[in-house]
Amino acid sequence: MSEIDYEKLAEIELQKDEAEDTQSEQGETFMPPPLMDPELNINHPYYDVARHGIIQLAGDDNSGRKVITFSCCRMPPSHQLNHTRLLEYLKYTLDQYVENDYTVVYFHYGLKSLNKPSLKWLQTAYKEFDRKYKKNLKALYVVHPTNFIKILWNIFKPLISHKFGKKITYLNYLSDLREHLKYDQLNIPQEVIRHDENLRGKQKGKLPSVVKVPPPRPPLPTQQFGVSLQYIKDKNKGELIPPVMKETVSYLKRKGLQVEGLFRRSASIQTIKDVQKLYNQGKSVNFDDYHDIHVPAVILKTFLRELPQPLLTFECYDHILGITSVESSLRVTRCKQIIQGLPEHNYVVLKYLICFLHMVSQESIYNRMTASSLACVFGLNLIWPSKGTTSLSALVREEEMERDRKCLLEATALTSCTGADARHEGSIKPISLYLRAKSCSRSAFSNPTDLRSSGQKPCTRGASPLL
């Protein structure tokens, strides 16, 4: 069958899908989706595309990899969206993550004759994504696939390598995503949720009944993951730094500081679960047994991400969102105020973490992990909202809007203190640890820039008995 025949067949299948969807939706007609991000600045270089919310950052998967979603239902009719610009914006977004392992979730529902890109565009798009995009894409989940997808697969099969093909997983229902990633972090369009409900309604009697999840059990006395800092402190003789953090940081200081891509790579999901289980049972963990330096790195990120409340606390969320609206000359002062307002325990743990990350960034000539890279990795592990999705609203520095749409949060730490209380007395020197918008925004639209050094050494050995 020729390519033209396949394209005609694909169009027929797409029209069939539309007819079925229209019937299940009781005759709803296709309407352009509303603007998805009204806070997006009109000066954004891809405002015309980004405003629809087609591409979004959606937290992490079960391996700690960043998740990017593509929602077809948010694509307006083709005459209202420049597909060349869409491709440019997609690359613009992915460029911020391709140095790290990442995952893509493609919500197929909503692709219609009115808004679908041409076959030529799809072929161009696939060719545009060279090795750097494909190598670190570890999983591509296609949700609600139809015969249209199967036909596309036949068209692209000669172009797609066997290795890349193994990364693609087809999921018939949204619930299937729970096995692979943190479902609650996803900002799933309501249209997709309704479609999923319709599909399940048609399959009543064919699908196994949903098993009710039993109420959570009380944590073990030795529990480390998913419990509060206070709980860990109470069960560990008043120690402020959790054992998981102490052991992972200590190991990485000894053996990981010069490892290229530290914190960028993922590890075996089963290995991470096994290590978590050992910690939760109060058993010792020897990272040498796993022969993978990325295991302790992922464990550290996982520990932070599974805290019931983020290290920077829910209370600080709105204050952090407001940092970029503060005049640049006052921004460091505002950051200090936020950090100083943290609970004492959170402050000590944050300082411990940031001083370690500073050590990592000092070896960036070897590990390629600049402060900007570390911010990209750790952003969503330090702050998220108490409700809704885990991504932050767009944080845009106005004075850099035209140049690189850089968005940051300057986290600060002490260097000259000798104890926890000294933050209110001693001098405070900022560590400019950038939590870039691509780590924390719905639209994922900032560009990477390097750490702007203050000329001061943020953390020094012996600065605190905790370090």
From TrEMBL:
Q: What are its GO cellular component terms?
A: cytoplasm
Under the heading CDD domains, the entry gives:
RhoGAP-p50rhoGAP (cd04404), SEC14 (cd00170)
Query: Pfam families recorded for this chain?
Result: CRAL_TRIO_2, RhoGAP
Region named Disordered: 13-35, 445-467
Boundaries of every Rho-GAP domain copy: 227-408
Tell me which InterPro entries the record gives.
ARHGAP1_RhoGAP, CRAL-TRIO_dom, CRAL-TRIO_dom_sf, Rho_GTPase_activation_prot, RhoGAP_dom
The domain of life for this entry's organism is: Eukaryota
What PROSITE patterns does the database record attribute to this sequence?
CRAL_TRIO, RHOGAP
Q: Where is the composition biased (Polar residues)?
A: 445-457
In its UniProt record, a GO molecular function of this protein is:
GTPase activator activity
Can you give the residue ranges of the CRAL-TRIO domain?
Answer: 45-200
User: This protein is called what?
Assistant: Rho GTPase-activating protein 8
Its source organism is Falco tinnunculus
